[in-house]
Amino acid sequence: MENSINERRVISVIVLNESSVLARITALFAGRGYNIESLTVAPIPNSDMSHITIATNGSAKVMEQITKQLHKLIPVYKVIEHEEMVEKEMVLAKFPITEHLSDVGALCAAYNGGIVNVGKEMIIAMVADEPNRIKHFIEAAQRYNPCEIIRGGVVAIER
Amino acid sequence: MQMSGAQMVCEAIIAEGVTTVFGYPGGAIMHVYDEIYKQEGFEHILNRHEQASVHAADGYARATGDVGVAMVTSGPGFTNAVTGLATAYMDSIPLVVISGQVPSQLIGTDGFQEIDAVGISRPCTKHNFLVRSLEELPRLLKEAFYIARSGRPGPVLIDIPKDITVDIGEFIYPDSVDIPTYKPTYKGNKRQIEKAVEAMKSAKKPLLYIGGGVVLSNASDLVRELAQKTQIPAVETLMARGVLGAKNPLLLGMLGMHGNYASNMAMSETDLVISLGARFDDRVTGKLSEFAKYADIIHVDIDAANIGKLVDVDYPIVGDITEVVEAMLPQLDGIDTDRFEAWRNILKRYDELHPQSFVDSDDVIKPQWAIERIGELVGENAIITSDVGQHQMWAAQHYPFDRPRQWINSGGLGTMGFGFPAALGVKKAFPEKTVINVTGDGSILMNMQELVTAAEYKIPVINLILNNHFLGMVRQWQTFFYEKRYSETDLTFQPNWKALAEACGGIGYDVTTKEEFDAAIKDAIEQDKVCFMNVAVNRFEDVLPMVPSGGALFNMMLPQKVEGK
Q: Is B526 a catalytic site residue?
């Protein structure tokens, strides 16, 4: 029965940089009823490929199907189901200027970040850390009355 | 050579060796049609509906094994073609469908007859392209044909904006294709094949489970050799009818929801399933937890995603059936065929206990009789297409198919209206064969406009309408599972079939007796005209055996026993 346990997994998909390739990937997830928790995409430097990182969840059987179905798409070059990875997610957060700059700064520093912009009314902070630590950061940030928090989605690299 | 995009399309079709294209013109594809008018490399058949064009190209592809080509215009022309694409996709049929699109600069503006064709067709094509520039058109045409026919075959859509068909540029049709991200696996893993062969040698009750992939791979002769050499009994799926041949003593029949008793029992009791190009469809497996419960499973499939999708597999082999079976055969030298004799005898007894039978009648034509009768009258000289419903199952159960590509039907999608246009494609490919579309009074009306096409181009296919004045399969379920509430399935109101066929330039036959049946078939074969053969059959005949949806394969509703059979 261990097959049916839902687990969070991160997959990297290397694809040809062509029109509608992202639509093919997301349509596959939608059409076959798989979840997307987060998705990031950017071109790979000095190549005609792009790197898509998808955080998803499902049983081992579902994960195997996701990997195989992604592979079947013509523009998909490689699918990596991450096992031993370094995983990071970036977050931008906006706080009112009335909050203590030093407190916000210390909080962000604890999560690999800092204050990146201070305006007349707002402080903007950035942190980059593992997804579960990001969750903690967002919880901790609540006491400084954030006006807006934007998560960037996961990127991962195999160790 | 300098030429327009439209000319490039025609040149590519000719270079690919396609002799017949099915289609329907319209605004966005007009430049291509203008070039079709000027060329002599292929014939174009004007169907009377785009869905029929794609089904006809599909029938052509299924009968020949080559890529079928259909051509449609943008917007409604394309959307009408979607059912055809989905039908081909579900059965892995190689097609290239070329659709016109509004001019590039109008894309995204909701232009007249604009629709997002690549968006709509994404889940029902193997791949699709929106052509962005004239420069890439020759390469994309080449890739479309290559992708359609290689690996696990499938339909490919190529959507061409009108301005690109007008533009003039250099045409060099590539000799080969190199898509770095697409490299199908043909050769099975050597070690896995060895292990599978060992499993076959040590099994007690092995069973060959033969699917449509064997037909697609043109591996029927090899699979016949495999069965012969090992003396392992075999079952065929709906898509594999004809692979072993009806006369093969090792063939138990078709398995699944309407499989025969021996086939379904064999699958329930086997200790080793040797799956060749089958995909464990729910209509085959019934309740998954009871399916082949006592068996290890060897699964050979060119599509890795099919393996382990529904059942856990012990010996996965990704590869082309031809290459894998070729590798298996020499390793099976000296296999002890007596080992399986007890198993074969058990299955033989099962078949004697509940043979594929029906109770015939002297008063009325039974649909099963009609199928068996055409088998006797035309047999191997015919290619049979079908629509979807009871008639399809009766044809699959009772026709003596003796070679692959003799049985052409929509198995995966189950598309009513498929059979008639598909028959046109088959007949264009094999004009010397008798082509019979086994259909029902429901299905045939879904593409009946093709009477006009068939009459115009003198494509004499026979539409054998097993007429029970019902949407019979739904009616059967209503009888069994809905307390006989025949909701919207009663087709008592009928067209005058004979007059309908004649009005469109064909021939009609109204058949109510066995004598009339024989006479009509004989007459229809000699005619050079399309016909509707309206055969009145008994209204309440059921397709049996039947495994109720979601039930275990061994729990079959069985037909009444026939005395003396």
A: no
- Catalytic-residue membership of B183: no
Contact B308 A61 (CB under 8 A): yes
User: Rounded distance, CA B283 to CA B281, Å?
Assistant: 5
Dump pLDDT digits (tens) for B42-74: 999 999 999 999 999 999 999 999 999 999 999
**B50 classed as catalytic:** yes
Cis peptide before B545 (omega within 30 of 0): yes
d(CA B162, CA B171): 18
Chain A interface mutation, best of B145, B156, B181, B288, highest count of A Cβ atoms under 10 Å: B181
pLDDT in tens, B319-363: 999 999 999 999 999 999 999 999 999 999 999 999 999 999 999
* pLDDT number for residue A3: 55
Are the beta carbons of B179 and A61 separated by less than 8 Å?
no
Q: Do B305 and A77 touch (CB under 8 A)?
A: no
Q: Is B544 a member of any domain?
A: no
pLDDT in tens, B432-453: 999 999 999 999 999 999 999 9
Residue B88: in which H helix or E strand, if any? helix B76-90
List the single residue in B with minimal CA-CA distance to A29: B123
Rg (C-alpha) for chain A, rounded Å, is 18
**SS3 call for B559:** coil
Say if residues B417 and B55 touch (Cβ distance below 8 Å). Answer: yes
One domain for residues B151 and B243: no
What one-character DSSP code corresponds to residue B447?
G
Nearest 10 degrees: Cα torsion B377, B379, B380, B381: 40
Characterise A10 by phi-psi region: left (phi > 0), alpha (psi -120 to 50), beta (else): beta
Instruction: Report the number of distinct structural domains present in chain B.
Output: 3
User: Rg of the Cα trace of chain B?
Assistant: 24
Q: Write out pLDDT tens, residues A84-132.
A: 999 999 999 999 999 999 999 999 999 999 999 999 999 999 999 999 9
Domain of residue B137, CATH code: 3.40.50.970
Average model confidence (pLDDT) across chain B: 97
Q: What residues contact A102, with CB distance under 8 A and at least 6 apart?
A: none
Q: Does B147 touch chain A (CB under 8 A)?
A: yes
Give the domain A86-158 fold.
Alpha-Beta Plaits (3.30.70)
Nearest Cα residue to B211 out of B122, B307, B314 = B307
- Which residues on chain A are in Cβ contact (under 8 Å) with B179? 74
User: Where does residue B97 rank: exposed (0-12), middle (13-18), buried (19+ CB within 10 A)?
Assistant: buried
How many other CB atoms are there within 10 angstroms of residue A2's CB atom? 7
Which residues of chain B lie closer than 8 angstroms to A24, CB-CB? 122
Residue B550's CB is within 10 A of a number of other CB atoms, namely 9
Average pLDDT over residues A38-53: 96
Based on the residue annotation, tell me whether B483 is a catalytic residue of this protein.
no
Residue A31: closest C-alpha in chain B: B123
B51 with B121, same domain: the answer is yes
Which of B443, B429, B459 is closest to B392 using CA atoms?
Answer: B443
Place of tokens 């962000």: A108
CATH topology of domain A2-83: Alpha-Beta Plaits (3.30.70)
CB of B406 closer than 8 Å to CB of B384: yes
Catalytic site residue B565? no
What 3-state DSSP class applies to A157? strand
**Is the domain of B458 the same as that of B390?**
yes
Query: Does residue B511 sit within a domain?
Result: yes
Domain that holds residue B113: 2-170
Spatial contact of B99 and B73, defined as CB atoms under 8 Å apart: yes
Tell me if A31 and B123 make a contact (CB, 8 A cut-off): yes
Q: How many CB atoms lie within 10 A of CB B407?
A: 25
